[in-house]
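Try this one yourself first.
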């Protein structure tokens, strides 16, 4: 059997071909209402199918936020499964935003659920939390390597509350977030053109020059649009690592639905602004 192509390789290619934009599939109850849909499984399915139809053939990455599907129980998860499969079939990479993190033996089961190729929810990558200790993510790192999948590890999150944990200094003077970034750089060492183990770093955070973001892996950057950051902020936040940034926009695009053309136009505007910002001008 040939080894699966690593996520980092597939992501770099998708970013080069389609641009780096990641559109979120976040079916908030308020968005369902704005789209004229009921807050039920049928509304969820319609919303999700529309986003996949509008985006999966053109953006590099789609990121479904699992919570909005879990809200509807097993039928919501069935919609999530279908959305993941349809998005991947249409050519988008899928980052499952489930932010899992647990003791290592349980983490292995989370990894099986999202990163084993036979799992119904198999995704190209998964968001995970390192705040039970980076080493607790070991089983997910191992299975991702085997499956050609990736991880996005929460490092410097976009929300204002994150700093009290992430900027905290360890006994050796290094911050918690810098430690997470250093672990990721080690996972990605020697991988070309890009490693498969990414960090989540909010686009809202302003100057991060105190952190080494050159982890040779992708940097998922939420916070553009509804949380107030703009594509023009990316160079100042990410510095020399800006070429590895996967900027995420959820509500900033989704609020333009349900019209497929309007969704595509909104994503296209963000994509163009991102292209200009990353190109330096
Ligand atoms: O892991 C994430 O995707 C994430 C990390 C983070 O630090 N901040 C953050 O907003 N997110 C997610 O990114 C999306 C942002 O959505 P909008 O604010 O609507 O663009 C949501 O699905 C959040 O759960």
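Now uncover the answer:
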């Amino acid at each position: 059997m040939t080894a699966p192509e690593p996520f980092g390789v597939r992501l770099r290619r998708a970013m080069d071909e389609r641009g780096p934009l990641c559109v979120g599939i976040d079916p908030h109850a308020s968005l369902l209402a704005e789209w004229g849909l009921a807050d039920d499984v049928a509304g969820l399915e319609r919303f999700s199918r529309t986003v996949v139809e509008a985006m999966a053939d053109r953006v590099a990455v789609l990121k479904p936020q699992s919570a909005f599907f879990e809200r509807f129980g097993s039928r919501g998860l069935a919609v999530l499964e279908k959305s993941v499969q349809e998005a991947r079939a249409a050519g988008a990479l899928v980052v499952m935003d489930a932010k899992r993190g647990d003791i290592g033996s349980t983490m292995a089961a989370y990894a099986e659920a999202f990163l084993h190729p036979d799992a119904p929810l198999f995704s190209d990558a998964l968001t995970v939390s390192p705040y039970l200790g980076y080493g607790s993510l070991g089983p997910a790192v191992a299975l991702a390597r085997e499956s050609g999948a990736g991880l996005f590890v929460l490092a410097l999150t976009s929300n204002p509350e994150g700093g009290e944990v992430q900027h905290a200094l360890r006994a050796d003077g290094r911050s918690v977030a810098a430690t997470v970034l250093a672990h990721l750089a080690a996972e990605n060492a020697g991988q070309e053109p890009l490693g498969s183990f990414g960090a989540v770093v909010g686009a809202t955070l302003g100057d991060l020059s105190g952190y080494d973001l050159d982890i040779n892996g992708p940097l998922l950057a939420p916070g553009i649009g509804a949380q107030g950051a703009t594509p023009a902020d990316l160079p100042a936040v990410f510095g020399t690592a800006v070429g590895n940034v996967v900027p995420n926009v959820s509500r900033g695009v989704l609020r333009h639905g349900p019209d497929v053309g309007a969704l595509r136009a909104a994503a296209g505007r963000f994509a163009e602004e991102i292209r200009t910002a990353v190109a330096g001008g």
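Discussion: The CA atoms of residues 14 and 60 lie 5 Å apart. The pocket of orotidine-5'-monophosphate is lined by residues 24, 26, 65, 97, 127, 157-159, 200, 202, 222-223, 225-227, 248-252 (CB under 6 Å).
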